[in-house]
Specification:
- By secondary structure, the protein is mostly beta strands.
- It is built from one helix and six strands; from the N terminus they run E-E-E-E-H-E-E.
- Strands 1-3-4-6-5 form a five-stranded mixed beta barrel.
């Protein structure tokens, strides 16, 4: 089973791009603190979120925001500019939860939440039916 759960802070603003096929992809990085033998250490992870999740991450998060990311680890092998074989670790996000409260980033950094179908919520009307209660 390949499952990872990380909580950390975005190290830069998310970058939303699109594949040649029109699929949205958001790349972002998080810094995650951990305990080590020498005290505290910080690890940095590159994350990728696809489609609607990627659009949401790009829209509602900024550098410094705390997020919880769950997903899977993907290893990729590549050759650097000097011809040395390297291995990279990417986190493929399946879920991202925003942990920074909305007002903590200047207030104007967030767009309003997308409406569901464009319809307004119905107004609640007062209802007094205590006269039929048998006790």
């Amino acid at each position: 089973m390949n499952k990872v759960f990380l909580i950390g802070n975005l190290t830069r603003d998310p970058e939303l791009t699109e594949t040649s096929g029109g699929i949205k992809i958001c790349r972002f990085a998080i810094a995650v603190n951990r305990r080590s033998a020498g005290g505290e250490a910080t690890d940095f992870y590159n994350c990728t979120a696809w489609r609607g999740l990627g659009e949401t991450v790009a829209r509602y998060s900024r550098k410094g925001n705390k997020v919880a990311v769950s997903g899977s680890i993907e290893l990729r092998n590549y050759e650097d500019s000097q011809g040395i074989k390297r291995t990279g670790i990417d986190i493929i996000a399946q879920d991202v939860e925003f942990l920074t409260p909305r007002g903590n980033n200047g207030g104007d950094d967030y767009e309003p939440a997308p409406s569901q179908g464009g319809s307004k919520k119905p107004q609640l009307q007062p209802f007094d039916d205590d006269s039929d209660i048998p006790f």
